[in-house]
Design a protein that fits this description.
The chain contains eleven helices and eight strands. It has 305 residues and is an alpha/beta fold. Pyruvate binds at residue 212.
Amino acid sequence: MTQTLTGILPVAPTPFLDDGQVDEDGMRRVLDCLIDMGVDAICILANYSEQFLLSDAERATLMRISLEHVAGRVPVIVTISHFSTDIVVARAKAAQAMGAAMVMMMPPYHGSGLFPAEAGVFEHFDAVNRAISIPIMVQDAPLSGVTLPVPLLARMARELENVSYFKIECPFAADKLASLIEAAGDHIAGPFDGEEAVTLLADLDAGATGTMTSGLFPEHIRPIVTRYLAGDHDAALKQWQVCLPLINHENRQCGLRACKTVYAAGGVIRSDHVRHPLKPLSERTRARLLQLAGDMDLIALKWGK
């Protein structure tokens, strides 16, 4: 990948059949639908892909299917997070060998209390940096429970050549993005946010150049970023205000289930099944989701019909 990524890099959901098996054909349809939405890249095997519910064999199969099927139409980012540095390095090497444009990883953690000191976090990323030659995106998310101070992130950006993208989705993300950009400057190719774009306007004000949302409706969120970066901040604000009710419902009520529910309703995938111990949406939450999605005439709601 030679061009710096901006815009929207959504996470692809992992479709399952009603019996819980991976839907390989559904995965291909998910990727095609996202590309038809005009995304700038696609991220696979992330938390919103239910990566924590996939076996190693399933991960390998999904990575192969995704990279072969996308076939360079857009860059593909492969999430490689794991507590074990050896496993993360092996995943990174495999992703690069198969054609991934970038890898994304969280700091090492296991539960709420098992994670290394800052030196161990740096060494974890350094090991991957030395093993591959494609960009690495650091995912700074509350899920890990690991605090990644700005000085540590800035040091990683300055000293680790391939660590050049940062997905900041912790509380007060805008302030952290601004501080990180100030501290590391040109060493950061892509300051991004996440959390379904619920703080996107503030994060763009702070210097973000893109967002990694779910795959629910990137065709509506991408213009927020492109209009802002083009200098039309008023138009970006208006578009964000249009999107915000659905963003909020997804972020606060649905989580990763929103995208799968809408994709199933629109015929992109055959089932909105989530693996146990996750539970399906309540009928109340599902009904409001589909109403909000219908009001916005989402591509996903009609793509497979």
